Amino acid sequence: MEAEAARYIAKGLIALAMLGTAVGEGYIVGKAMEAIGRNPETTNNIFPKMIIGVAMAESTAIYAMVLFFVV
């Protein structure tokens, strides 16, 4: 039963990692949109960097999802 309990704890922690990634992505996009709203001329400079940041944050969620199904 201890192994099963450890598995449930691990899955809960992995779910928290995925939740944290979603919060981080929302923060990245929100701040980028705020910056573009304040200075629309910087759209071509900010938007590609935002996409790269979101992709890097999303990779953490993908690794966590893979671990979730492996555990």
Automatic annotation (TrEMBL):
GO terms for molecular function: lipid binding; proton-transporting ATP synthase activity, rotational mechanism. Residues 12-70 form the V-ATPase proteolipid subunit C-like domain. The chain crosses the membrane at residues 12-30, 50-70. InterPro entries: ATP_synth_csu_bac/chlpt, ATP_synth_F0_csu, ATP_synth_F0_csu_DDCD_BS, ATP_synth_F0_csu_sf, ATPase_proteolipid_c-like_dom, F/V-ATP_Csub_sf. The record marks E58 as: Reversibly protonated during proton transport. Signal peptide: none annotated. Pfam families: ATP-synt_C. Belongs to the ATPase C chain family. HAMAP family: ATP_synth_c_bact. This is ATP synthase subunit c. The lineage of its organism: Bacteria, Candidatus Harrisoniibacteriota.
